[in-house]
Q: What sequence folds into this?
């Protein structure tokens, strides 16, 4: 039985032997005492990369997002984000539970809204009945939007609206590096536009654990306190930070390979009669929908019986996420599997 090809997410990757070696060689200390030199190196490196003042290493992207929302808002405030946003859909209601804030959802194009939409949904401060709009949150790439990338010019316009109305701007950049390589942009293009940025090392970059929150010294000092409150202080975390440093050095440019693999699968899907629609592939995520009558559960079972694990995104939609543990040969096997007649059988 050949090894399962797992395209459920880019979070399923295992550290490469070279990454493991870097982890084993890490110099560590107790990071809750601020004594882990490798964590400090990672935080400094990331802050410099984005041209921001400081960074905080956290166990997960959910935690970096939730800490950022906590820092920017007070109970009763409102967060403006897209209806597809991970912070809204997939963080356990954390915006309400951790920050006591409510959410104003925008309907964007695959998760990307416009500055004008933001402007139209800001509650005036003098309106006593309304929640105070306090924070705008963007996700790049948009996971549920099929890895869609934002247009930097639109983000600049949103920044201007935020400044005009005294709103903070947060970026859920769990897959920001995918957007950067796809669009030939630099981290500094983003660092100058956001009050806080969350980046994940544990997705396409292939580290086993870890995310970073970036911001000003003042914001990161507050974030440090909330990380403690949420139980996210880690002790000899340098072993994990070393994986993150290795990923930043070696795994950024290779994301292009994942994008190419995703495009190969997209091309195949577009030729298949049982596929109703495919979101245009921009990065490493492929989201497509099955024609009515074809059960997604059954389809996923069939794929699995042929050695491919994928996931459902609700309704008729299926998601494939390409990553460093899927070889070109395995992409070929996925294509062959998709062509098999029984995969498309509804019974
Ligand atoms: C866009 C986005 N933001 C945040 C997260 C949360 O990351 P974590 O699983 O590390 O909490 C994810 C996870 O898949 C994600 O896709």
A:
């Amino acid at each position: 039985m050949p090894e399962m090809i797992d395209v459920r997410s880019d979070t399923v990757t295992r550290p490469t032997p070279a990454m493991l070696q870097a982890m084993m060689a890490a110099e560590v200390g107790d990071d809750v005492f601020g004594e882990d030199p490798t964590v400090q190196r990672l935080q400094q490196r990331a802050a410099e990369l984005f041209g921001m003042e400081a960074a905080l290493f956290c166990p997960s992207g959910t935690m970096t997002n939730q800490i950022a929302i906590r820092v920017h808002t007070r109970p009763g405030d409102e967060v403006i984000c897209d209806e597809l946003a991970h912070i809204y859909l997939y963080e356990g209601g954390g915006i309400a539970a951790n920050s006591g804030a409510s959410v104003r959802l925008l309907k964007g194009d695959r998760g990307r809204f416009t500055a004008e939409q933001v402007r139209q949904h800001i509650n005036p401060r003098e309106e006593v009945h309304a929640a105070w709009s306090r924070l705008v949150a963007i996700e790049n790439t948009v996971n549920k939007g099929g890895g869609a990338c934002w247009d930097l010019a639109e983000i600049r316009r949103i920044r201007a609206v935020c400044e005009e109305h005294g709103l903070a701007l947060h970026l859920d950049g769990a897959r920001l590096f995918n957007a950067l390589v796809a669009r030939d942009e630099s981290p500094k293009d983003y660092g100058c536009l956001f009050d806080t940025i969350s980046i994940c090392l544990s997705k396409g970059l292939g580290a086993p654990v870890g995310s970073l929150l970036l911001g000003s010294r003042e914001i990161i000092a507050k974030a440090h306190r909330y990380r403690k409150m949420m139980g996210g202080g880690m002790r000899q975390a340098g072993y994990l930070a070393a994986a993150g440093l290795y990923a930043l050095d070696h795994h950024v440019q290779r994301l292009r390979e994942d994008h190419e693999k995703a495009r190969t699968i997209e091309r195949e899907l577009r030729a298949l009669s049982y596929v109703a629609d495919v979101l245009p592939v921009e990065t490493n995520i492929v989201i497509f929908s099955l024609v009515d009558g074809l059960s997604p559960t059954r389809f996923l079972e069939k794929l699995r019986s042929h050695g491919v694990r994928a996931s459902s995104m609700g309704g008729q939609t299926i998601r494939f996420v390409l990553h460093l543990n899927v070889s070109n040969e395995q992409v070929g096997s996925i294509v062959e599997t998709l062509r098999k007649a029984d995969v498309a059988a509804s019974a």
The radius of gyration is 21 Å. The mean pLDDT is 97. The longest strand covers residues 132-139.
